[in-house]
Amino acid sequence: MSAHTTQTELKLIGKLVLEGELHCETGLHVGAGKGSLEIGGSDNPVIKDAFGRPYIPGSSLRGKLRSLLEQFSGMATPSELVYLSRRKGQEVRIHQSDRPDDEICLLFGRNPGRMERAAGEPLESHHATPARLALYDAPLDADSITPQMRENMDDELTEVKSENSVDRITSQANPRTLERVPAGARFRVRMVLDILCEEDAPLAGVLLRGLRLLEDDALGGGGSRGSGRVRFSNLKAVWRSREYYASGAAEKELIAAADVAALQKLVNESGAAFLKD
To answer: Is residue 113 part of a domain?
Structure first.
């Protein structure tokens, strides 16, 4: 847990800006959630922008990172989970507590109010916590889809993976299709961590821990069936202090062309040194 207390004063010290690439090691499916099926289309299309290009919503990255960090921290237990939605068959539970030093709530934010726990007495939260982390939509780098890849794909930018489930009693097949961005594709990622007090510095390590966990997990749908393995590379981290915004002071580059492991090592070894200009 962090060193935050109920008396911790929040005042922007600076922003840690992290940019880089997300590589698809296997096909990636982030669903569009369409309610209708197009003739000749996939049962499960990927989400696309207004120009028809696949992208990764910041909310998908954010939600996956939060889930992995909750599991890592031992917070994915009924007594620590509250309901965001209790609609039958669509229950949504996330971790939330009223502890001022809760790193998950500090990183992703927290709303006050009464919330029903998955188990135990309702949570009466009195502390609103601003989210320190902003994760932006990640656009596809169209150049990463090579002409050779396009020759073997069902669409200009995506492929269709055919899957089949078989009834164990009757052996009846239930075919389905899954649209995916192919292995080898790259997305441009950008995330910004607000440092609102010196006690926020360790949150950079929490974020990087989540990125490393994601590399050994899966993003999007079909992860247990081979989809969604990703890797971060060519990462660049810069520190923009309060003076950067107040008087146009120069930003400080911390690392460039790095992977998550190298950036994590730098942050762990330097501690809060990146706060110093």
So the answer is: no
Count CB atoms within 10 A of the CB of residue 95.
Answer: 22
Residue carrying structure tokens 């880089």: 20
Mean pLDDT across the stretch 252-268? 95
pLDDT at 27 over 50: yes
**Residue 136 CB coordination number (10 Å):** 16
What range does the domain containing 173 cover? 14-75+130-275
For residue range 107-144, list pLDDT tens digits in order.
999 988 888 888 888 888 877 889 999 999 999 999 99
- Count of structural domains within the chain: 1
Residues 5 and 73: their CA atoms lie apart, in Å, by 19
Residue 117 lies in a domain: no
What is the full DSSP assignment across 55-86? EE-HHHHHHHHHHHHHHHTT--SGGGEEEEE-
In a domain, 104, yes or no: no
**How many CB atoms within 10 Å of residue 173?**
9
Q: Which of 266, 220, 238 is nearest to 55 (CA)?
A: 220
Residue 173 has a pLDDT of 85
Query: What are the angstrom distances between the C-alpha of 175 and each of 142, 166, 240, 259, 270?
Result: 30, 9, 51, 39, 52
Amino acid at 178: L
